[in-house]
Design a protein that fits this description.
This is Aldehyde dehydrogenase. Belongs to the aldehyde dehydrogenase family. It holds the Pfam family Aldedh. The chain is α/β, with parallel strands linked by helices. Helix content is 38%, strand content 20%. α4 (95-106) packs antiparallel against α7 (195-206), α5 (110-131) packs parallel to α6 and α10 packs across α11. Bound molecules: nicotinamide-adenine-dinucleotide (NAD). Nicotinamide-adenine-dinucleotide is lined by residues 161-165, 170, 188, 190-191, 221-222, 225-226, 229, 240-242, 245, 248, 264-267, 299, 398, 400, 426, 464, 466, 471.
């Protein structure tokens, strides 16, 4: 990856994208399109199809037909594995193209996108390609002349709804295991980050995935997403996004066919730093990166920094230094550490959180403003607010932006109480050299993922999922396969 190749790709025009239905690129049923606005400079990059409910129904019908005739599920596991590996090969071969396309669309800094997007997507698809012929049924420990078999079957049609922060990585977390288990899939990317996921879906066809097994429909969540949620023919719905949309999906399921709904939602993750942390300078740098990379648009971002009172001022000063050393700007510049905020609306919302934090007594000790306005893009200075009480809006509500709230604590119990004082439970971290304290914190802080003396970076071998209002499902690892499988019992009298 070098700057010249990135600049050459960024200069290329982007052809309009249609849906991918039944192996063909098609327009919306009424021909409507949506402009794709670049967060880098506010320019219109291209268009995508503005999907209708009929488009979504056509994609689901195609997926059902593909599942029904066994063109994918009926293939030998080794054959399916080969196709998925070929898909991963193509993603790797097109990695820079995919990464630059995605960054032009969603604003993530390229240094992060390259690794987290095509790199991670290809690795995820390979992981599940390798897993697919290691999933066995079971024989139950029955007594007498009876045989109890437990089969693992694909569920049928999977609907996947993906957010804009990491479309390829999160897309692959769902498509990889769903396809590996033999299902057909309809995926809906987010309005403000469709392009790279649509391109990755095209590559799946090129790799030999039969038409109709993977369909992709662009458009507004409230239209095509709702049609997917209300469909009578989607068996499982997997979702990553906000809690508000997650609630709607549960309602859609209740109003339609009671499809299984798995939600990976937001967080307000506590990063707890004790005075006995092994290396406070390192902790400060990682704390800054753990909230500010991708402009804070990371579900597991450590957005609440809880610092032992004895080191509060020194540690905050170190985090401010680390933050101010991070370079905000052109996401396609390899030297950039913090890219663009995804949309104008998101930036406005972020600035509103800063105003509220001030009004509630917080002190903005760095950042707090929109910057680089001359670019026409959506850039915000990484922002740190101290004096955030556990009840404050900034401590309670997910911002999903580059804003870190800092609160002091006195004792271990205090730290746990504050850490657990939100409705969320996605991720967290503890920094300490005391092994017992580390294990107690891992045990007592209510989250799906805990880090010790680090933040982020958990690879595909471990599950990611939340507790509380952070969700009810897991992506990554072999555990994710369960979402895409039905257990069927065969009770056989011998
Ligand atoms: P969002 O809920 O606004 O949108 C997510 C997706 O849902 C988009 O594709 C959108 O088009 C679709 N959608 C919107 N309204 C819909 C409706 N009525 N019916 C069906 N679909 C609809 O979320 P977002 O702003 O794109 O993503 C940010 C959120 O995602 C944050 O809360 C973040 O924490 C969360 N997130 C969670 C994880 C995780 O693994 N837990 C990972 C990344 C992001």
């Amino acid at each position: 990856m070098d700057q010249n190749s990135i600049d050459a790709l960024r200069a290329q025009p982007i052809a309009p994208f249609g849906h991918l239905i039944d192996g063909k690129v098609v327009s919306a049923s009424d021909g409507a399109t949506m402009d794709v606005i670049s967060p880098l400079n506010g320019a219109v990059l291209t268009t995508v199809a503005r999907g209708t409910a009929q488009d979504m129904d056509a994609a689901i019908t195609s997926a059902r037909a593909a599942f029904g005739d066994g063109r994918w599920a009926g293939q030998a596991p080794a054959a399916r594995k080969k196709v998925l590996h070929k898909w991963a090969d193509l993603i790797e071969a097109h990695a820079l193209e995919l990464a630059v396309l995605g960054v032009r669309d969603n604003g993530t800094e390229i240094s992060m996108a390259m690794k987290a997007e095509p790199g991670s997507a290809a690795a995820t698809i390979r992981y599940y390609a390798e897993a697919l012929d290691k999933v066995y049924g079971e024989i139950a420990p029955t007594q007498g002349d009876v045989l109890g078999l437990i089969h693992r079957e694909p569920v049928g049609v999977v609907g996947a709804i993906v957010p804009w922060n990491f479309p390829l990585m999160i897309g692959a977390w769902k498509l990889g295991p769903a396809l590996a288990m033999g299902n057909s899939v309809v995926v809906k990317p987010a309005e403000t980050a469709s392009l790279s996921l649509m391109r990755m879906a095209e590559l799946a066809l090129e790799a030999g995935l039969p038409p109709g097994v993977l369909n992709a429909v662009t458009g507004e969540g409230a239209v095509v997403g709702e049609a997917m949620g209300l469909s009578m023919d989607v068996d499982v719905l997997v979702f990553t996004g906000s809690g508000g949309t997650g609630r709607r999906l549960l309602e859609y399921a209740a109003r339609s066919n009671l499809k299984r709904v798995y939600l990976e939602l937001g967080g307000k993750s506590p990063n707890v730093v004790f005075a006995d942390a092994p290396n406070l300078d390192e902790a400060a740098k990682v704390a800054a990166a753990g909230i500010f990379r991708n402009a804070g648009q990371v579900c597991v971002a450590g957005s609440r920094l809880l610092v032992e009172a004895a080191i509060h001022d020194d540690f905050v000063a170190a985090v401010i230094r680390a933050t101010e050393a991070m370079r905000v700007g052109d996401p396609l510049d390899l030297q950039t550490n913090i890219g663009a905020v995804n949309s104008e609306a998101q930036l406005t919302q972020n600035l509103g959180f800063v105003d509220t934090a001030r009004a509630e007594g917080g002190e903005v000790v760095t950042g707090g403003t929109r910057i680089l306005q001359e670019t026409g893009g959506n850039f915000m200075a990484p922002t740190i607010v101290t004096g955030v009480t556990p009840e404050a809006t900034l401590a309670q509500k997910e911002v999903f932006g580059p804003i870190l709230g800092v609160s002091p604590f006195e004792t271990d119990d205090d730290a746990v109480r504050i850490a657990n004082s939100t409705v969320y439970g996605l991720a967290g971290a503890v920094w300490t050299a005391n092994l017992s304290r580390a294990h107690r914190m891992v045990r007592d802080i209510r989250t799906g993922v805990m880090h010790v003396n680090t933040y982020g970076g958990a690879d595909g071998t471990v599950p990611l999922g939340g507790v509380g209002q952070s969700g009810n499902g897991h992506d990554k690892s072999l555990h994710a396969l369960d979402k895409y499988i039905n257990l069927k019992t065969a009770w056989i009298k011998l």
